[in-house]
Amino acid sequence: MAMVKVLLTAAVFISLLVHGMGGDNMTTWFTGATGSFYGDMHGRGTNKGVCGYGDLKKQGYGLETTALSAALFNDGLACGACYALICVDDPVGCLPNAGAVLVTATNFCPPNYTKPLEGTNNWCNPPSKHFRLSLPMFKKIADEKTRMVPVMYHRVPCAKYGGVKFQIVKGDSSVMRVLLYNVAGAGDVSDVKIKGSTTSGWLQMTRIQGQTWQIGNKLQGQSLSFLVTTSDGKMVEFDNIVSENWRFGETYDGIKNFLMG
Fold this sequence. Notes:
By secondary structure, this protein is mainly beta. The chain contains three helices and 15 strands.
């Protein structure tokens, strides 16, 4: 009982903190979810993945990451969103007085239909809401031997350092793909438009996977601007952040970022 009281007190504290930072849409705690882990203590096995990110340490996410089950992943739209998680209702598995961990969604936890309906390794099957944390994050709230624990969770604003990053990951003379990462505030990008220095206006990009966006226009030899919208409706314009001599594989700093409040 004492442990539950401490956990709920932590939940109330974080909820009040987030209320001051992000508004009512990020203050509701949800139950009925579970958490497990993958990778090792150094993060091996957690890099790359369906969201399109690469080296998570170099990209600023570090080990504070999670993969999401289909019920939370929303076909990749949740990539970049941040969550607070608290281990609850498991006196054996939950660490006492652990409080909450804050993580960013960077990968997808695929369903496993080869396992029985009730059992291990099928926690990501629909309609389950499951967080597959990096091992260091899981060990902050639960005993590794438990493998899976019940959790409370809610969205929190993402705190990131520096500007939004734009990596021109792939393309050719007619197709350009851009990965967005290190996005603060809501964290998950819902719309991207691009403009070249010689185009007449904003051009709509299409999300092809996670936070990788594509356009079929020829933009070589032009400096590039971006108009980015996150899931909370906030919009930031990044003017001429990519020089006219840009190259595929390079990453460009947006200089500014979304506000957390």
